[in-house]
Design brief:
Layout: H1 8-34
């Protein structure tokens, strides 16, 4: 993306936080699914 945004750092921070929350949610769901199997 070559678009220059004045709040690019804030947008990147929000996207980074959302990615972390998504990864944690997927990991937690995966643990809840795999725990009864083990």
């Amino acid at each position: 993306m070559l678009i220059k945004l004045p709040d690019l750092s804030q947008t990147f921070r929000i996207a980074f936080i959302r990615d972390i929350y998504f990864t944690l949610a997927v990991t937690e769901t995966r643990i809840k699914i795999l725990t009864p199997i083990q």
